[in-house]
Design goal:
The protein is α+β, with helices and mostly antiparallel strands. About 35% of the residues lie in helices and about 30% in strands. Helix 8 packs across helix 10.
């Protein structure tokens, strides 16, 4: 449930991110605290945004000029994500259209997010990609409990946000001025909040934040009380039943997820201790006091830890805690405290040490405009059929690649630039001769023979056996090359063309073995024999 709710509020949190990096005290007569809260709790809006990532490879990455790591880093040096139209009709439902540019490829996209799933349609895709937000997000919690929690959880999140925002201290540089800015073609009079901070300020700010949190006892207890009022009425029936089952001597199950609790020498003592804790939960005031005490103790440990190490030592070991890391934010709010425009820039340099030379510096820039806040908004829906590409169903890289037309920018990016379909496999020859009832490779007249299962399991090829025709058909799912082999024949049909093989397909103890080098070569790959190691490297 928590995982799902966090994804439902992606749009609102993205807007609130720059504001959180600013302070919370009133500046220039503007209640920054309220501005932050209003931005993070927007229920509906329209807008547009641009997100830009810039990476500079480190010393070691540049030295490995021909490595796969350097190739990928080169592709990721500059990425732009443009949301031309964002529409959010609630904290749960968001649609957007735009495009992404990466490695000189421009790929248009459309997204549609609900509390159940995210649907993504990419230019050149044959069917949409689906990310299921419900699977594994709530474990085995009863659906009724999940629904009740979801209905009550969002108000608590708002209270939690308000409490945490209240504790945030001001950064070193924060000012407010009145400006005129264009938002969605309309010139508006807005309050511009400008804030800057360096990584060097993070430790002092963290100390102040924890101190503020420890001192605000009344608000902390009120927040804990809200959490109690949210969860206890929903969970108490299950917990009471669990206690009764224990008294009746029944086999105990996890009260929330339903799986049996294994009996171990220490399980009875643990159960008795847990029942004692459940008895405390029935007393609201006592529960609040216990949780409050635990949080205060944890805060003390955190504060002691922050003071235990010198700031200079932390800055030397973690470069992003020094002046080489900078955060700048410009936030534009109207006279109703609604966020209408934002610019955020986070830059970190001197990253060679923490990235082991892979990365020298990184920068992210986010700019957005927002309008029609908390008014009715009509989303642009996107549907997915049953055969859509669901990412959580064991989808392979080849499956993703096949979803795009070969002429599309997405296909070229995945196949040519990222090389997601490329395979390098090292095959160890455990002796040269065939071993009875074994699927191990062997040499036959100097030709390496492998079982057809090796092709499907290691090289991601599709292998079909026709019992009646006594033929094996091998299909490359990427380029759709088809190789048909007949038992006892040294002639193969490659895309319908007859080609002679070094060795015919063999059958040993009901297992079919095929000539490895011939198959790999016909599919555009290559093999290399290492005599000393008695192994074959396959690249395709």
């Amino acid at each position: 449930m928590f995982r799902r709710l966090s994804k439902q509020k992606i749009g609102a949190l993205l807007i609130a991110l720059p504001m959180v990096l600013n302070g919370c005290q009133a500046v220039g007569g503007l209640d920054v605290n309220k501005a932050i809260f209003e931005a993070s709790t927007a229920q509906s809006l329209e807008g547009k945004s641009t997100i830009i990532f810039d990476l500079v490879p480190g010393d070691q990455a540049q030295a490995r000029a021909f490595s796969k790591e350097q190739t990928v880093m080169k592709l990721l040096e500059h990425i732009e994500i443009h949301h031309d139209a964002i529409k959010m009709d609630s904290a749960q439902n968001v649609s957007s259209t735009g495009y992404i540019t990466i490695a000189n490829h421009k790929i248009a996209f459309q997204t549609y997010m609900t509390k159940e799933q995210v649907i993504i349609a990419l230019e050149g895709g044959k069917k949409p990609i689906v990310i299921d937000l419900t699977s594994s997000s709530t474990g085995d919690l009863p659906p009724v409990l999940v629904k009740q929690m979801e209905e009550r959880f969002e108000p608590f999140v708002n209270s939690l946000s308000s409490f945490l925002i209240k504790q945030l201290p001001n950064p070193g540089k924060l000012n407010v001025e009145n400006v005129r800015e264009v938002v969605n073609g309309e010139t508006l009079s807005l309050n511009k909040i400008h804030g800057e901070m360096s990584g060097k300020e993070l430790i002092p700010l963290a100390k102040t934040f924890v101190t503020n949190l420890m001192q605000d006892d009344k608000a902390l207890k009120q927040l804990i009380g809200e959490l109690y009022d949210l969860l206890y009425p929903i969970l108490s029936p299950q917990l009471d039943q669990w206690i009764q089952d224990n008294k009746d001597g029944k086999a105990l199950q996890n009260p929330l997820e339903g799986y049996p609790i294994p009996e171990t020498p220490g399980s009875k003592a643990s159960v008795d201790s847990l029942i004692g804790m459940l008895d405390i939960l029935k007393n609201r005031d006592m529960t609040i006091e216990v949780i409050h005490t635990e949080i205060k103790q944890l805060s003390v440990f955190v504060l002691l830890g922050l003071h235990a190490r010198k700031e200079q030592e932390l800055q030397e070991s973690l470069p992003f805690l020094n002046d080489s890391t900078r955060v700048k934010a410009d936030l534009y709010v109207d006279n109703t405290m609604k966020l209408r425009k934002s610019n955020l820039e986070i830059e970190a340099t001197s990253l060679n040490a923490v990235s082991r030379g892979s990365l020298s510096s990184a920068k992210i820039s986010i700019a957005g405009e927002y309008w029609n806040l908390n008014n009715p908004v009509k989303l642009v829906p996107l549907t997915a059929d049953e055969d859509a590409l669901v990412l959580e169903k064991g989808i392979t890289a080849v499956d993703v690649l096949r979803n795009f037309t070969p002429s599309s920018e997405a296909y070229r990016l995945l196949k040519d630039d990222l090389g997601i379909s490329k395979k390098t496999v090292l095959l160890l020859m455990d002796g040269d001769r065939y071993k009875a009832n074994s699927r191990k490779p062997f040499l036959e007249d100097g030709v390496a023979m492998v079982p057809t299962t090796f092709l499907s399991e290691k090289l991601d090829l599709r292998v079909d056996w026709n019992e009646e025709a006594q033929t094996v058909t091998i299909i490359d799912p990427v380029n759709l090359t088809t190789i048909k082999l007949n038992s006892g024949s040294q002639t193969a049909l490659v895309n319908g063309e007859e080609i002679q093989m070094d060795k015919e397909m063999l059958q040993r103890d009901g297992i079919h073995f095929v000539p490895l080098t011939f198959i790999v070569t016909q599919l555009g790959g290559q093999t290399e024999w290492y005599n000393e190691a008695r192994s074959i490297q396959i690249t395709r």
